[in-house]
Design goal:
two-stranded parallel ribbon
């Protein structure tokens, strides 16, 4: 999902004017205007009332039948006896071993080991950060939960690296394999985290094994992609020189490619850790232990302060792991003469009988007081905002989508996809729209889509405005960068609590949480796109007398179009994931169907079908967002 700038070649004997007459802006605008007229007439002729809720669709019965078959054959079919069950057992042994190792170190031992590893990999500053971060888990009174979360994260990261690095190397070295796996990675990266949970519970039941496998599937695409990038980026001159000296393929890989790609491989581990940590929290919905359980309990009680404590612990863990691994990618580890004494000292500390008697500090009470004050004094404003957005934007759009026949919607998707991203993307998006209709969840899918579109518009407006401001004011960008870092590491569940406290349980709550969740990456991408505009172009425009407004609208934003398109794409995908999570707080639609499928056995088929519908919606929205710019 990268933005690519492509140039349209000029055919010999052809002219720009002739080409514009066929596929240029005039033709596109005319086609778009005609499409709007045709679709409007078709909608007025064929629109109908929203379909009644389908409680017995063929897809529901099929998935329920699959569940029944799995339950009946879990202990007898060879696929389970010699495959799934052994995998589940192996993952349980891995998580148990990692958890036992972390717990066995004890409080002081684990803090010392974290500091020692950070010192060896990144230096003394990051060792201090690691020690302070791990101490904070005990200070917040969340030591056990933090260790459980860390255990699941490290287990999933270990499996992701063991699987993803070889696949990334293979994708970089074997062209057909890289081309074949790329669409699969695209789909895996646009799926909301919720979409992985139902299939994992079907195969691995609830608990740590299902959580680790779901996290592995969610995080491994990043490992594969960055590894492929690192191996492919090794200078050909170095490879040719090693080949000329008689190196075999294995020697080239072990002694040239992997060492040269080391900084990028460490970056792959860094990004895998971030992805795994965010997913591990979500797996609390399938009974995974750790900080996610605290957030779920706080969500059930609408206890913003308790959720803030757990969210703060997750942010601290993410910051420590991120900073240490990022620094490790920029420098070589300390030599053995330094590493051995430091690690030995940490081992000695682990053997000492030191307890976890540290002062406890909780932010729950002050955060709850602030929340109560805001609820009391901002009630009129929040009610007005919720009612206005619902009445002006959400309700009309939902009515439009739910009363549109599925076949007309699919045709519109095909046309828009062709104009925006080409016929391949249009075909994929149209097929996804038809697939949603075939699952028997059309109305709920359209309700979810309406919520996603409203949240996306608000996200892009706020994110683009903030991103442009950050790009034009360095001090502002420096000031908000820590806030963006914290916002991107905070688990998605945490955003639901303040939204519920301010707006109650409703669809608008999911919109607010989605906007807060998705704005930070949009701000970053827009800022990066505007900053990447060549300085020479900006200087030329200023010399020609452009005002700051003209410079922005006629120079910087047009040239930053690839970054803006990528920001829109990422914003849509993140909004979809968060809106679905909003099913926990009254947003309804597909999110509610998925949650009901987890908690109620009779709704399992419907919940699994809703998960696939979310997948198809994600593919549809991703393919309709153009990620290539022609200049």
């Amino acid at each position: 999902m990268t933005a690519v700038v492509t140039r349209v070649p000029v055919r010999p004997g052809g002219t720009d004017a002739g080409r514009r007459g066929v596929t240029g802006p005039w033709f596109s605008r005319t086609l778009a205007a005609g499409l709007i007229v045709v679709v409007t007439v078709a909608y007025l002729v064929f629109r109908g009332e929203p379909a009644a809720e389908n409680t017995d669709a063929a897809a529901f019965r099929f998935f329920t039948g699959v569940r029944d078959w799995v339950d009946e054959n879990r202990d007898s079919h060879p696929a389970f006896l010699f495959g799934v069950n052994y995998l589940r057992l192996g993952v349980r042994l891995l998580t148990g071993s990692v958890g036992a190792a972390l717990t066995g170190l004890g409080f002081a031992g684990l803090v010392a080991v974290a500091g020692a590893v950070a010192f060896v990999l990144a230096g003394w500053r990051y060792a201090v950060l690691a020690v302070a971060g791990f101490l904070s888990f005990a200070v917040l009174g969340l030591w056990t939960e933090s260790v459980e979360t860390l255990s699941l994260t490290l287990s999933a990261v270990l499996l992701s690296v063991l699987l993803g690095v070889p696949l990334g190397v293979l994708a970089a070295r074997v062209r057909w394999f890289g081309a074949a796996i790329r669409p699969v990675l695209d789909v895996m990266q646009i799926l909301p985290a919720f979409a992985y949970l139902a299939p994992m519970t079907l195969l691995f039941l609830i608990g740590s094994p299902a959580a680790v496998v779901a996290t592995l599937i969610y995080a491994v695409p990043v490992t594969i992609r960055i590894t492929e990038l690192g191996i492919a980026g090794v200078p050909p001159v170095v490879v040719e020189a090693a080949t000329a000296q008689g190196s075999t393929r294995w020697q080239l890989l072990a002694k040239v490619r992997l060492p040269m790609a080391r900084p990028v491989l460490v970056l792959a581990v860094n990004q895998t850790i971030m992805m795994a940590l965010s997913m591990v929290v979500v797996t609390a919905l399938i009974d995974a232990p750790g900080l996610g359980e605290n957030i779920i309990r706080a969500l059930e009680r609408v206890n913003v302060g308790a959720a803030f404590d757990a969210g703060l612990a997750i942010v601290i863990m993410a910051v420590v792991l991120d900073r240490v691994t990022t620094a490790a990618s920029r420098r070589r580890p300390a030599g053995w003469r330094v590493s051995v004494p430091v690690l030995a000292a940490a081992a000695v500390v682990a053997l000492l009988p030191i307890g976890d008697a540290v002062p406890r500090v909780s932010t729950a009470e002050p955060v709850n007081r602030i929340t109560a004050w805001v609820e009391l004094h901002w009630y009129d404003a929040t009610e007005w905002l919720r009612n206005t957005v619902s009445t002006v934007l959400l309700n009309p759009l939902e009515t439009l989508l739910t009363t549109t026949p599925w076949w007309l919607f699919a045709l519109v998707v095909l046309a828009v996809g062709f104009l925006a991203a080409g016929w391949r993307a249009a075909l994929i998006a149209g097929t996804a729209a038809a697939g949603v209709a075939g699952l028997g969840l059309w109305v709920h899918a359209m309700q979810t889509l309406a919520t996603v579109l409203v949240a996306t518009v608000l996200t892009l407006l706020i994110g683009a405005w903030a991103g442009v401001l950050c790009a034009r004011h360095d001090r502002l960008a420096t000031a908000v960068r820590p806030l963006l870092d914290a916002a991107q590491t905070m688990p998605s569940f945490v955003y639901l609590l303040p939204a519920v406290a301010l707006f109650g349980a409703s669809r608008f709550t999911a919109i607010v949480a989605a906007v807060i969740f998705a704005v930070p990456p949009v701000v970053r991408l827009v800022e990066r796109g505007v900053r990447d505009v060549p300085a020479a172009v900006v200087e030329a425009a200023v010399s020609a007398g452009s005002t700051p407004r003209q410079l922005l609208w006629k120079v910087q934003l047009p040239l930053a179009r690839p970054g803006l398109l990528l920001a829109a794409n990422q914003g849509i995908v993140m909004v979809l994931g968060m809106v679905v999570v909003g099913g926990l707080v009254g947003a309804g639609a597909l999110g509610y169907d998925v949650v009901a499928g987890f908690s109620q056995r009779e709704d399992f088929g419907r919940g699994l079908a809703a998960g696939f519908a979310i997948v198809l919606l994600g593919i549809l929205l991703d393919r309709l967002t153009p990620r290539k710019a022609e200049v």
